[in-house]
């Protein structure tokens, strides 16, 4: 999408543009009333009857009671944009990789994997497959070398898929899938089934997890 400088409610000012795709942009913004406070803003243009940000917001609200799911202080529209505001949970695992040269202790990697598996299992228990494992989408908060590990969070639920009916637990009717536009940045971490357009299961998230650390 075309990047627009987004000033939320005249209180927050853009500090950094974290990511832009043809679908959306993610900003880090600073609170002008409390400069030590930052938020993450995900914004996209209106897209007719299928709105990916609204769909993502619905999923996140359904999963809000799960450990490892980011809190949404506010969502709605700002001008011509659909917006979701997240708490700033930086840094990401990708940031940690860059700062350490991927030289993480075995205990740190084990802790990361354990927390991520637990989070994914919670998501599966709510009938969803995450489908978007990559270092940029894993926020580690205070879980950085030299500090006490904090809770991990998964970010970006635009590729999440419902794999069974949450009421009857019957499998959702499968249609051959194709990687969505803008998902190319995740292809290095996607499962073989995802690339082939086959039906996905929770094992595909685990396959992606094995190539992430």
UniProtKB/TrEMBL annotation:
Signal peptide location: none
PROSITE patterns cross-referenced by the UniProt entry:
PROTEIN_KINASE_DOM
- Gene3D superfamilies for this protein: Transferase(Phosphotransferase) domain 1
State the Gene Ontology terms under molecular function.
Answer: ATP binding; protein kinase activity
SUPFAM superfamilies annotated for this entry? Protein kinase-like (PK-like)
Ranges for domain Protein kinase come to 1-213
Q: Quote the protein name from its UniProt record.
A: Protein kinase domain-containing protein
């Amino acid at each position: 999408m075309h990047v627009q400088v987004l000033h939320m409610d005249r209180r927050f000012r853009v500090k950094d543009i974290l990511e832009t795709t043809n679908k959306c942009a993610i900003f880090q913004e600073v609170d002008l009333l409390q400069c030590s406070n930052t938020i993450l803003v995900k914004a996209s243009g209106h897209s007719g009857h299928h709105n990916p940000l609204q769909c993502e917001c619905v999923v996140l609200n359904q999963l809000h009671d799960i450990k490892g799911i980011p809190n949404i202080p506010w969502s709605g529209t700002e001008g011509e944009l659909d917006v979701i505001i997240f708490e700033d949970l930086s840094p990401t695992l990708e940031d940690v990789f860059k700062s350490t040269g991927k030289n993480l202790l075995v205990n740190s990697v084990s802790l990361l994997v354990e927390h991520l598996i637990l989070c994914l299992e919670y998501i599966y228990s709510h009938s969803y497959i995450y489908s978007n494992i990559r270092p940029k989408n894993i926020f580690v908060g205070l879980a950085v070398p030299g500090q006490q590990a904090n809770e991990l969070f998964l970010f970006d639920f635009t590729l999440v898929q419902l794999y069974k009916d949450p009421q009857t637990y019957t499998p959702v009717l499968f249609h051959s899938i194709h990687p969505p536009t803008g998902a190319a940045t995740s292809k290095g971490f996607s499962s073989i089934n995802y690339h082939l357009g086959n039906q996905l299961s929770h094992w595909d998230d685990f396959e992606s997890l094995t190539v992430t650390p």
